[in-house]
Amino acid sequence: MNTVLAVRNRILQLCNERDFTINKLATLSALSPSSVKNILYGKSKDPKLSTIKKICDGLEINLGEFFDTPEFDSLEQEIK
Description:
Blueprint: H1 3-18, H2 22-29, H3 33-40, H4 49-59, H5 63-67, H6 70-73
């Protein structure tokens, strides 16, 4: 699994837990729905940390909570 897929999965997990639609998450995060969709559907190959931070703000969590999962802990090194 790569980082972008892990970010996508985490966003979907958190939205499912809160019963948020993509549009609701975008509104709460002060992002356009297309920005969120680009991350979720793989068009954004390297989402900016500032965008992820806005998503965290919309979800009312901090970056540490976002990245504190076994999925992120088990990512392989991308530079070899």
